[in-house]
Design goal:
Length: 136
């Protein structure tokens, strides 16, 4: 990034489920010197959906959806006004899994996909309870 002219990188530590922390990070994201926002926060409520605590599910939605949306909304207007900027949303296969066994199966299928293993991939995704589609 420095070779491309970036003058600095700042990492903000915050609990994005906490409204005060989210407001603090959104304020920073709206600053005129922010040209890149990396949304890298994410949590999961592990276990069968019907058994996960409702408060934890609320926290999952707040961090994974509300915070990401609020931070992107804070950063993008300035980027548009300056005519430059980017938002990177980092995601994980872990976000789609209720247990680590499913994560392992999905990760294996993803690795096969990246290696160009073709037909085996769809079968592995089905085993993991997901669907694989080719982009057109």
């Amino acid at each position: 990034m420095r070779e491309a002219g970036a003058t600095g990188v700042e990492t903000l530590v915050a609990d994005l489920a906490n409204p005060a922390d989210l407001a603090r990070v959104a304020e920073r994201a709206s600053s005129s010197d922010v040209d890149l926002l990396v949304n890298n926060a994410g949590i999961n409520g592990y276990g069968p959906f019907t058994e996960v605590d409702a408060d934890l599910l609320d926290r999952v939605l707040t961090v994974n959806v509300v915070a990401l949306t609020a931070l992107t909304r804070a950063a993008v207007p300035g980027m548009l006004a300056r005519g430059r900027g980017a938002v990177i949303n980092v995601a994980s296969l872990l976000a789609f899994a209720g247990d680590l066994e499913a994560v392992t199966r999905l990760a294996t299928a993803e690795l096969d996909l990246r290696r160009g293993s073709g037909g085996r991939v769809a079968a592995r995704y089905r085993e993991a309870g997901a669907e694989a589609r080719e982009a057109s």
